[in-house]
UniProtKB/TrEMBL annotation:
The keyword Ribosomal protein applies. Residues 26-45 are annotated as: Disordered. Residues 3-91 form the Small ribosomal subunit protein uS4 N-terminal domain. It comes from Candidatus Avibacteroides avistercoris. It comes from the Bacteria. The keyword RNA-binding applies. Residues 92-156 form the RNA-binding S4 domain. Part of the 30S ribosomal subunit. Contacts protein S5. The interaction surface between S4 and S5 is involved in control of translational fidelity. This is Small ribosomal subunit protein uS4.
Amino acid sequence: MARYTGPKTKIARKFGEAIFGPDKYLSRRNFPPGQHGNNKRRKTSEYGIQLREKQKAKYTYGLLERQFRNLFVKAERSKGITGEVLLQLLESRLDNIVYRLGIAKSRAAARQLVSHRHITVDGKVVNIPSYSVKPGQLVAVRERSKSLEVIADSLAGFNHAKYPWLEWDESTKVGKFLHVPERADIPENIKEHLIVELYSK
């Protein structure tokens, strides 16, 4: 599946945030990459600010332009506030839920676990990271994959209570998608209204 495979710290520096998770290099070089990254830059245009927000959302959730655009169109056709619905659709992706449940330490790692057939939904193996999980469905680690060290390390000490829309049973390694999260519960620092404004032009 097509995805961004370049240097992640460089992208995090571009946005000034650790959008891929903890980044020890970002704290050392917390200015934009490039020859003039540490110099004052001219004021960014309104379009530039909107584009930057869209790019940040794409990199955060690991989507390319076509996937992201398709999700936006789906959000636009749905009931509710378009920007919030967009984030809810992103949060409902299987790779994101695997990450939120603590089964993987990053969304990239979660995507790999899904692609390599280590994850089940309602008891059936699903190897499509973009699969949209519905409220009430069970997301679990496949029986023969429960002993994988990478999964055990990720789950060790993970606080499952921080995401109220998810439930986790440690003994069975099964999580439940209780309901679509409210915008206030989604921790990502994304100004979704700017994305809506960009696509509305």
